[in-house]
């Protein structure tokens, strides 16, 4: 596509949204748009050819299902009720009982926002979205994003958008329009530029259809925030199946989680509870193993709370970036900083990990997926 471009003039907003909406309604080409979490690559979730073009554009494995984005509960109800078996459609108001009760407190509290829920597909002969979107699973994932451009685009087109993150597969998720441009330039007709994403990492994916209900992917809403809404929600990543003996308890699959993600080209060394000098010793070991001279090696450092630049001064080829102190600052910077180090062509990235509570759980989840080496000590304080 020659016309792939960024739309950055605020005065262009309405015409850009209209152009994007027309593309979504009339073609199978995916459009990139901002959400509060990361940029998405969206196409009509009901159309198989449109959904397929998303996988092709990103080079995404075909067994990793997509999240469907809606702008209102009314739009979601219309989508679901179209695929309901006739008898239940006829009973009372179609607006009731289509969304399982277990999600009600979460929807009240977090929509619009960075939370995706799994809904059952009741009628497999007339599924609400293309089987390409769900990868033939009995459920589909939905979220109502908070970003005004995302909401406007979905409402204006009235198209439920299947949208994964708008990066090329295995690259860090894009949190700025230029990241999308770098990855997908020439492959998509339009990128809507809504500025940097406020949250910076992907939505939390939950499954309330099993017992106990589970958090499948930690993200923009923390496990603590979900638990505060009531109910016993467990994190699949720390949840041990051996401690469970009833038939109803099972570990649901999150197909996407098996893939290595967010990988910059450099070797990422992730440290938990390590001081700078201890991390440097580990780096020296690696340099020795690879026969690299410390003055040749290009080193990137991502610090969070405690690491200081000074200690790394003995490396002449150093890029030192500050992720921030607060969890929400770190989530906002994380992917952009990984991309920046990648552009610098660093050989090694040393990352100061964070405690795995609140935003920390999702941050460490993404960092471990980017890391080729993880060094863990318990946090001392
Ligand atoms: O914040 C986000 O969620 C972003 C923005 C664009 O909304 N989207 C995003 O999509 O991160 P993606 O494709 O990168 O991640 C979708 C995740 C995958 O881990 C996938 O396995 C899971 O959602 N998922 C989708 N449908 C599912 C289903 N039916 N069952 C289990 N997991 C599902
Ligand atoms: Mg993704």
Automatic annotation (TrEMBL):
One of its GO terms (biological process) is telomere maintenance. ATP binds at residues 60, 64, 139, 165, 173, 217, 262. Required for the formation of a threonylcarbamoyl group on adenosine at position 37 (t(6)A37) in tRNAs that read codons beginning with adenine. Likely catalyzes the conversion of L-threonine, HCO(3)(-)/CO(2) and ATP to give threonylcarbamoyl-AMP (TC-AMP) as the acyladenylate intermediate, with the release of diphosphate. Required for normal translation, by ensuring translation fidelity at the level of codon recognition, appropriate translation initiation selection and maintenance of reading frame. Also involved in telomere replication. Residues 14-221 form the YrdC-like domain. InterPro entries: DHBP_synth_RibB-like_a/b_dom, Sua5-like_dom, Sua5/YwlC_C, Sua5_C, T(6)A37_SUA5, TC-AMP_synthase_SUA5. GO terms for cellular component: mitochondrion. It is found in: Cytoplasm. This is Threonylcarbamoyl-AMP synthase. It holds the Pfam family Sua5_C. The keyword Protein biosynthesis does not apply. PANTHER family: SUA5, THREONYLCARBAMOYL-AMP SYNTHASE. L-threonine binds at residues 37, 69, 143, 163, 203. Its main location: cytoplasm. Its EC number is 2.7.7.87. It catalyses: L-threonine + hydrogencarbonate + ATP = L-threonylcarbamoyladenylate + diphosphate + H2O. One of its GO terms (molecular function) is single-stranded telomeric DNA binding. Belongs to the SUA5 family.
